[in-house]
Amino acid sequence: MAQHEITLKINGAKKSASVESRLLLVHFLRESLSMTGTHIGCDTTHCGACTVLMDGEPVKSCTVLAVQADGHSLTTVEGLEQGGKLHPIQNGFWQEHGLQCGYCTPGMLMTTSALLERNPDPSEEEIREAISGNLCRCTGYVNIIKSVQHAAAAIAAQAQPSPEA
Amino acid sequence: MIPASFDYHSPHTLEEAIGLLQSHPDDAKVLSGGQSLLPLLKLRLGSVGHLVDIGRIPGLSYLREEDGFLLIGGCTRESALERSELIRTRYPLLFDTAGVIADPLVRNLATVGGNLAHGDPANDHPATMLALRAEVVATGPGGRRVIPIDDFFDGLFSTALAPGDILTEIRIPVPAARTGGAYQKLERKVGDFATAASAVQLTLDLEGKVSKAGIGLTNAGPTPVRAKDAEAYLTGKWPNDEAIAEASRLAGAAAQPSADRRGTVEYKQQMARILCGRAIEIAIDRALNPLEPKGN
């Protein structure tokens, strides 16, 4: 039962730990680090509730070994909020009622974060394609898409210098 | 779900990786993107003593044309195919295929080499590589050897790779002028394996007749299927409605799927036929109207 020393960055902070070979990244986050924002949904690589960003790309953390993340940089849902202020993506989901039970939300937020980083003004089709690996069983996709659009507009508005400036 | 216990190795060179595989000949598996292997280990459909992660070996992820071949490094992610202008414009069959494998999150980790080495006839790249007449490069204790794709899949989850081998490269002949391809897949939902799917690569001569045809079928038997009768029938013909219908019929007849929750044998054969016909039509259109790279 081999142990491995790993060092990685999570939401900008360096973490080191000793992990068993078979420990999955999602269990490392939730159980070893008590970062329970990342959810375990299906546990079979289908639902995307466990989505985190690894070097900026959204991946399913139930299908990555913690030891594979050694040396990489992770962003989890806990990394979105800054200084007590919701991220525009979180705000978008709040404003547009992009969740009912909230179980899929951490994954949806992380996938949206990577989408908007790559494509700041996605079409509805591009949003649907991007979140096609994230399942919402409250059938809230219509509002989730509105939430992503709300976030995209808010981020674009932030980037524009205000008229008074 | 937690996999049964194993040891994990992350070699930094191919030689080291091959050495590790050799020292555990019956009990080691190569870990590439992990998107097939880790679910399998989690579900305990399999177990392994040693995982040899090739993801940290530099130089196994690339896409480039060289000496008449498109070279794809074994560890190239599916998402890299989706984002490549070279693939989008020159290899539309590959571009189509990469875009329908599993889901976008899985494709950020899944690798082309892993998709083939897994030997699953339900995976999408095998049919595509059959249609493209690809070659697979295996690097093992005896060095590098090139395996034609027709000799690669030898059974359900079984390939020509020997225990010490690592799939390091896929080689696809650069398409001739007036070549087009398409992949058509029917899936119940994003992320499911194909109910049926067809990969088609066609080259037209100057008159517009088919001079070369490659047709592969996904999830149509214990190994990926190359629809040889359909290919032979189409070659040398004008690709009119009648010829497309007959080629598709032959492709459907080559499908030997098994019944499951996705459908009956008859339904899947009909779907293979229909999807083959659609893929042929799109391939012809693309052969006649090639795409230009964006932003050049």
Features:
heterodimer, A: 165 residues, alpha+beta, Ubiquitin-like (UB roll), DNA polymerase, domain 1, 2 domains, 5-stranded mixed beta sheet, 5 strands, 34% helix, globular, B: 296 residues, Uridine Diphospho-n-acetylenolpyruvylglucosamine Reductase, domain 3, Enolase-like, domain 1, 5-stranded antiparallel beta sheet, 4-stranded antiparallel beta sheet, 11 helices
Uncertain residue ranges of chain A: none
Helix content of chain A: 25-40%
Q: Provide the residue-averaged pLDDT of chain A.
A: 95
Biggest chain pair contact, residues each?
A-B, 31 and 30 residues
Helix content of chain B: 25-40%
How far apart lie the N and C ends of chain B?
48 Å
Short summary of the structure?
The complex is a heterodimer of chains A (165) and B (296). Chain A is α+β, with helices and mostly antiparallel strands. Chain A contains five helices and five strands; from the N terminus they run ββαβββαααα.
Task: Give a written overview of the molecule.
In chain A, 34% of the residues lie in helices and 16% in strands. Chain A has helices at residues 25-32, 88-95, 105-118, 124-130, 141-159; strands at 3-10, 13-20, 51-54, 57-60, 73-75. The longest helix of chain A has 19 residues, at 141-159. Chain A is globular. The mean pLDDT of chain B is 97. In chain B, the strands form four sheets. A five-stranded antiparallel beta sheet of chain B has the order 4-5-10-6-7. Chain B has two domains: 63-173, Uridine Diphospho-n-acetylenolpyruvylglucosamine Reductase, domain 3 (2-Layer Sandwich), CATH 3.30.465.10; 183-284, CO dehydrogenase flavoprotein, C-terminal domain (Enolase-like, domain 1). The radius of gyration of chain B is 19 Å and the shape is globular. Helices cover 33% and strands 25% of the residues of chain B. Chain B contains eleven helices and 14 strands. Chain B has helices at residues 14-23, 37-42, 78-82, 85-90, 92-98, 104-107, 112-117, 125-132, 228-234, 241-254, 265-288, and strands spanning 7-9, 28-31, 50-53, 63-66, 69-73, 135-140, 143-148, 153-155, 158-159, 166-173, 179-186, 196-204, 210-218, 225-226. The chains are: A alpha+beta (165), B alpha+beta (296).
